[in-house]
Design goal:
66% of the residues lie in helices and 4% in strands. With 280 residues, it is mainly alpha-helical. Helix 2 runs antiparallel to helix 4, helix 3 packs antiparallel against helix 4 and helix 4 runs antiparallel to helix 9.
Length: 280
């Protein structure tokens, strides 16, 4: 649901980004420990590394989640402020000059000494050289395995300008939801993606029509008539089982984004109807 009052600039900037950068750095630093353990294991297999591998997974998750938020926040702020898109060329040049010099130095030193890569395909070699091989399994496997996280980040960098322009196209210039984009992004990040998918699958299998009529309380149903995710037929069947008051909105499942005013008006109409019935 979209909040009835848009967050103020003070509340949207209340997150301590310096602390988040610190947590990201801590996670990156702690990632060194399990990698050192793996190297030690290569020289002395009697050393157990299972506990380090478990810690490594946790730190990787923390690092990537923090990176996704921190790296994308500039685009979100520009959208919320109604500013035009940032220069893609300047953005990629800035990131590239920070990443590639150190990465290439590592390749020059590590690959000849440790034989970390087998590059027989020129295209795979070029992809690994620029750390964009995350989009190709053969290229990813041919590159030094310890830089896979960097490859993921580079892939994320390349997608950020694309995501920015697609989201701008979805909302359009001057869209009334632009002020709450930071709030929407933050709420989206609160959820575990796997848990969200599992909940969605469980909801798709759940059927309350057989007993919904036994609830015996006033009910309302907002039906999105062009919904391709939850078919209108199913929405109306549940509303019928609940003996619900129905308000329809001509829109798809994303109607809160596409027609926020119509969605808000329909929701308030349902609430007013139900509270009137309960009060009466």
């Amino acid at each position: 649901m979209v909040p009835s009052v848009a967050p103020t600039s003070r509340s949207s900037n209340a997150v301590n980004h310096q602390g988040l950068w610190g947590l990201r750095g801590l996670a990156a630093g702690l990632l060194l420990l399990p990698h050192v353990a793996v190297v030690v294991y290569d020289f002395n297999p009697s050393v157990g590394i299972a506990q380090w591998a478990t810690l490594s997974t946790a730190f990787v998750h923390i690092f990537l989640i923090q990176s996704a938020y921190l790296l994308g926040r500039g685009f979100i702020r520009r959208q919320a402020a109604g500013q035009p898109p940032a220069s893609t060329r300047a953005f990629l040049w800035g990131r590239g000059t920070r990443i590639y010099p150190g990465y290439w130095l590592m390749l020059v030193i590590a690959v000849p000494i440790m034989h970390l890569a087998v590059w027989s395909n020129p295209i795979d070699t070029l992809a690994a050289f620029f750390a964009v091989n995350v989009y190709s399994i053969p290229a990813l496997l041919s590159a030094p395995i310890m830089v896979w996280c960097l490859q993921v980040e580079v892939g994320f960098y390349l997608l950020l300008p694309v995501h920015d322009r697609l989201s701008r196209k979805l909302l359009g210039p001057g869209h009334e939801l632009l002020p709450v984009v930071p709030w929407l992004e933050a709420e989206t990040r609160r959820g575990d993606p796997l848990a969200i998918v599992q909940a969605g699958r469980a909801l798709s299998r759940y059927d309350a029509r057989a007993w919904a009529h036994t609830l015996g309380v006033p009910a309302g149903s907002l039906v999105t008539t062009a919904d391709r995710l939850v078919l209108p037929r199913k929405q109306r069947e549940l509303a019928s089982a609940l003996r619900a008051h129905v308000v329809e909105v001509a829109g798809d499942h994303l109607v809160p984004w596409e027609q926020p005013r119509a969605f808000s008006d329909a929701t308030l109409a349902l609430v007013d109807h139900l509270t009137g019935r309960i009060g009466g």
